[in-house]
Amino acid sequence: MLEQLQELHVQALDELSRISEPDELELWRVRYLGRKSGVTQVLRSLATLPLEERRKVGARANEVKSALESRLIEKKRIVEEVHLISALEQKRLDVTLPGRPVSTGRSHPITQTLGEICDIFKSMGFQVFEGPDVEWDYYNFEALNIPRYHPARDMFATLWIDSEMEGRLLRTHTSPMQIRIMEKTRPPIRVIIPGRVYRYEATDATHESMFYQVEGLAVDENITLADLKGTLFEFCRRLLGQERRVRFRCDYFPFVEPGVEVAIDCLACNGGGCRLCGYTGWIEILGAGMVHPDVLRKLDIDPEVHSGFAFGLGVERIPMLRYGIEDIRLFYSNDLRFLKQF
Amino acid sequence: MKVSLKWLKDYVDIKVPLKELAERLTMAGLEVKGMEALGGNWENIVVGEVIAVNPHPNADRLRLASVDLGGQQVTVVCGAPNISVGQKVPFAHLGSRLVDGHTGEVVTLQPVRIRGIVSEGMVCSEKELGISDSHEGIMVLPHEAGTGMALNEYLGDVILDVDITPNRVDCLSVMGVSREIAALTGQLLNLPEICYEETEASIDSFVSVDIADPDLCPRYCASLVKGVSMAPSPDWLQQRLSSYGMRPINNVVDVTNYVMLEYGQPLHAFDYNKLKGRQIIVRRARDAETITTLDGVERTLNQDILVIADKKRAVAIAGIMGGLDTEVTEETDAILLESANFNQAAIRRGCGYLQLRSEASIRFDKGLSSNLPLLPVERATQLMLELAGGRAAEGIIDVYPGKGESKPILLSAEEVRRLSGLEVSVEQMIGVLKLLGFECQDTSSPSQISVLAPYWRGDVKCGAELVEEVVRMIGYDKIPITRLSSPLPSQEPTLMLDFRQKLRDILTSYGFQEVLTYSLTSLEKLQKLSPELELEIRPLNVANPMTIEQEYLRTSLRASLLSTLSQNQKMEEAGIRLFEIGKIFLPRGKELPREKEMLCAVLSGSRAELSWHGDKEPLDFFDAKGVVEKLLNQLGLKAVFEDSDDGSLFPGREASVIIEDDKVGVLGDLHPKVAQAFDLGAAVCLIEIDVEKLLDKAAEIRRYQPICRFPSVTRDIALVVNEGIAYQKIKEIVQSFPLVREVTLFDLYTGEQIPEGKKSFAVRVVYQSPDCTLTDEEVNQTQEEMLDRLRRELGATLRG
Hints:
The complex is a heterodimer. By secondary structure, chain A is of the alpha+beta class. Chain A has 2 domains: about 1-90; about 110-340, Bira Bifunctional Protein, Domain 2 (BirA Bifunctional Protein, domain 2, 2-Layer Sandwich). In chain A, about 40% of the residues lie in helices and about 20% in strands. Chain A has 12 helices and 9 strands. Chain A has helices spanning about 1-20, 20-35, 40-45, 50-90, 110-125, 135-140, 175-185, 225-240, 295-300, 315-325, 330-335, 335-340, and strands at about 125-130, 135, 170, 190-200, 210-220, 245-250, 255-265, 280-290, 305-315. In chain A, a hairpin with a 5-residue loop joins strand 6 (about 245-250) and strand 7 (about 255-265). In chain B, strand 18 and strand 19 (about 300) form a beta hairpin. In chain B, helix 6 (about 235-245) packs across helix 7, helix 7 (about 250-265) packs antiparallel against helix 10 (about 375-390) and helix 20 (about 725-735) packs antiparallel against helix 21 (about 775-795). The interface between A and B is large, with 95 and 96 residues.
């Protein structure tokens, strides 16, 4: 019986050493350690043996069994390792092949810019409003201190729906919303109004007949030009970078007094002077000022008590400066080769 | 406005460097847009005097000129035919930068030997100096040019291009800009001295002035000079007009223009002898009255236009342009010089009606002061006497019906602080205002002053305008930087804005690119959307379109989106998905149009980008529908889709999108004729949604569905129905059973094993009860009933 066990042990180990596939290991286990295996049979037949021999054979059989078991575990580990290595090798990919395309869309660069602008002002407590593109002369001009025959009408080449007499026009700026807001709301007012504006203008690389503006208006007691400066400086630096220099200079718009033009140092030449900035080093991005007392008075807001500031920002300028876009017409010609870059 | 620096220096000492001057003017509201140096490259070029001209020993057509440069003599070889002894000429030393007379390029003058003689420099033509294109001979300088003087010093100048805002008509003049410079730099203004002899009889004996419409002509001044000699103006005057960009004409006309540029007051010179009846009448034109203006055009006038007339006819359109009949010519002997003030609105109206603007009208239409005309007419009379000779009549006619008093404005330091945030003292305020010519007087309050604006500052009428004067003088850069400290106003929800952004986010996440197209389009483009039919809505049009491409306010986003698609199809091979969210404009009679927010999207080309992964299928109706379904799902909405008959879409391949019995949009394949009209290649699907309606629907409160604790039972059934049965019918019946939680179509089959004229729907039905675990019997029973109804109502049979 002991010889038989010895033979089994040798044979089993010999066979095990030649196994290389995981499936064969299971067959081997059934054959040598399963219920019908030699070792099991020896263990089952122990009862028939005399006591002395039973102890010897029993001990030996258990020895063989556990030896085979531990060799199996060891072998299994090796076989699996080898197998994994070869499987890994077989499943190798050409990782340089292109990935499966994901369809992506983008919002228009002007929409993106408007979003950024609105977010900055919203964080400063401005609420966003919108207004009509087709306006009355009254809101676009008259109520803004630009009556008929006022020379400042020259600043706004106008597209009229009917005629100047009948008064419907495509708004030339977002400022008419200043009036509409102040008609409906009493101070404190703190709003911005993004929107399309239109001009009777031949288009070229820097002029469009349609573009976007963002109007701002804040009216309350004790609002000053210094507040306007602080608000716009913070806005410019948040939108265009902390390192930007901002210039605040005297300018004229009939509906503000004092009037202001805000310029930033040219992004292309860092203020050194180049074609983009007309060799001045500065790029105008905003017109602004304190709401003219006559405008407030017309809306029953007492200019002795309340003051306010207003500003109007040209939106296209911002991405043009940021990305070095030299032709404003690219925005509304909607060439995907352009739009997909943003 | 272009202003010569040399000219400015006649009236004000400019001690600050030019760059700083430009910066100060810009900061104070007079933006210097550019500075052009005239003769900036004239280093090493001096004024020389030709002292001898000798023949060249080796060349007939060349001569040797000896030129005195003031203490130094040089000899140059010269080919110019016009050189002669005694001339003052520009002489360029070696190393000067000159324009090559033949190539036009700028070159550095090198020593050169011409036919054996070394030339020690060069005498120059105007072209070589970059002054003009004249290269026929050397430039001969006026005699007063000092020998040896740097040419830059004698001829050079800097032309400032100053942007004058419409409120500062006073600065449309050299005097005005000088006044600003003087105030900003703390200098005094040097006014020209006006003094001349009046040797003729009183002007009243020659002419009288009658203002018939004083509301349109507050003031009319005139002088008279007899016996003038017409001639070209001297160089200095011609140069000054050129510096502004004006063409010299003759000594009399040039004087009027010169004084206009100097003072900002337009003047007009009449040939006195051509005026009829010794009378000037300022009146409204008669309807259909005509006049031929100086530009030779006959113009028909109306009663809104003011004219200057004599006894017989209109001789000038007041403030806009003179008449040809009374023009000053070479034969002119006597001049009637007009310096008047006209109503600003009347001039603008006239210019608008006549489509005519002039140097005079661009000043009058901004509102000149009626205080201005007297000084300029005297100044011009003096210059005319100096340059054209003649005898001035005694006195000036000055009819001034519109004389008014200017009102003082009260200003306190507190007001300056309240509006600007800048702390100033009363003394500081008075100091800067006085520099600008404002008169300041104390009031009973020590912190308040009473301010009277100078006559040329008609734009300053209220406290805020005075605040600007104070602040711009102190400097906008001195304004402190503060943050808004007033309480935050209450904030309202911004539903539409947020909703549009949500739609944008969703659509871009589906691979759609946003475009923004013009609000204005052409009728032709809109018409392309319904080639067969009249346009449903007559769009609103612009009265003065820039181009026919942008004449009509769009009544649909479709046309511009399809054009955009068409343009891009030519460039892009892969599938294209575009959308726009924007306004359309629906006319409402004479009211403002209704501006309605719409969403339009188009899909065309292959579903996936070209790749080795396959899927080269084109985008189709069901892609569009999938987009709408998913979009609505993300908004918490459910729609039904019904056949529609939209004129632009493919009949039978289009659907209305209906939410709660309300049509919110449409989708479908594009009608082949529309596709052809827009020159579209591949098939196109279009989606259009009324954003406002959608917002209304989406704004309704959404409730969450509790997650069911009980297991569901899934059954797949295959139904065979007639070809004409819509899937929607089957779905409705299946869903009408309360135990059905979900129904999904997973196969649609026609072909083998299915009889002709039939089709098979394979549907997965999920049964679930919120209250208990379903038994097989319950599910079977429901399914039996369901199949029974499907059979009875739709003739559906189970596929064997």
